[in-house]
């Protein structure tokens, strides 16, 4: 009886510790979908998420984050921050390269104005999120600005278990901020 109590106690404490680590420090989760290709694969990619950036704390333009989906709180999204508070954002830059404008032999001034007339100013406490694969991403262009309170954490690495082995840490790679300027050398 004493041994069973001791084992149960260790199990309960371990589960509590795991929950605290998952909730406040670190998360390792699978991603699905094509919205972040080529940064994150469509299938079987697992991301490392630092919870130090929860609620948008210290996030920067270009960071890849995990957030609660504004239109469905049971889902999470992996996106890149492409606008911070007070930034003025062109709502859908992908339309400028779309077939809608290419189908015209002579693009007129009104076509160009249509392409560049939909702007939004990101309000305080919010961010603008987009996927790296704009043609296959449901993001702020669909659900508008996202409250920083919905940010779960920042993605700093990913594992591709299809390609990796234990020798290369199961396909581990760092996720870079592609919008951040490199320091001049």
TrEMBL record:
Entry-linked Gene3D superfamilies: Umud Fragment, subunit A
Enzyme superclass (EC): hydrolase
Record's keyword annotation contains Disulfide bond: no
Localization per record: Mitochondrion inner membrane
SUPFAM superfamilies attached to this UniProt entry: LexA/Signal peptidase
Domain Peptidase S26: 9-155
GO cellular component labels: mitochondrial inner membrane peptidase complex
Any one GO molecular function term: serine-type endopeptidase activity
Protein origin, superkingdom: Eukaryota
GO BP of this protein: protein processing involved in protein targeting to mitochondrion; signal peptide processing
EC number: 3.4.21.-
Keywords: Hydrolase, Membrane, Mitochondrion, Mitochondrion inner membrane, Protease
Keyword Mitochondrion found: yes
Chief site of localization: mitochondrion
Similarity annotation: Belongs to the peptidase S26 family. IMP1 subfamily.
NCBIfam families recorded: sigpep_I_bact
Name this protein carries in UniProt: Mitochondrial inner membrane protease subunit
Organism: Henningerozyma blattae (strain ATCC 34711 / CBS 6284 / DSM 70876 / NBRC 10599 / NRRL Y-10934 / UCD 77-7)
Taxonomic classification: Eukaryota, Fungi, Dikarya, Ascomycota, Saccharomycotina
Gene: TBLA0B05650
């Amino acid at each position: 009886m004493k041994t069973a109590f001791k084992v149960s106690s260790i199990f309960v404490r371990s589960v509590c510790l795991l929950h605290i680590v998952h909730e406040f420090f670190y998360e390792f989760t699978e991603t699905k979908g094509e919205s972040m290709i080529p940064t994150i694969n469509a299938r079987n990619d697992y991301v490392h998420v630092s919870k130090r950036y929860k609620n948008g704390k210290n996030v920067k333009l270009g960071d890849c984050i995990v957030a609660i989906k504004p239109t469905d709180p049971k889902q999470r999204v992996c996106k890149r921050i492409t606008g911070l508070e007070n930034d003025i954002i062109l709502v859908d830059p992908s339309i400028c390269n779309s077939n809608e404008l290419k189908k015209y032999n002579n693009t007129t001034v009104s076509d160009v104005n249509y392409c560049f007339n939909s702007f939004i100013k990101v309000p305080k406490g919010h961010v603008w999120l987009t996927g790296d694969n704009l043609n296959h991403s449901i993001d702020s262009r669909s659900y508008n600005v996202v409250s920083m309170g919905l940010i779960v954490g920042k993605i700093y690495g990913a594992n591709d278990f299809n390609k990796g082995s234990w020798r290369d840490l199961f396909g581990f790679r760092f996720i870079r901020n592609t919008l951040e300027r490199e320091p001049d050398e």
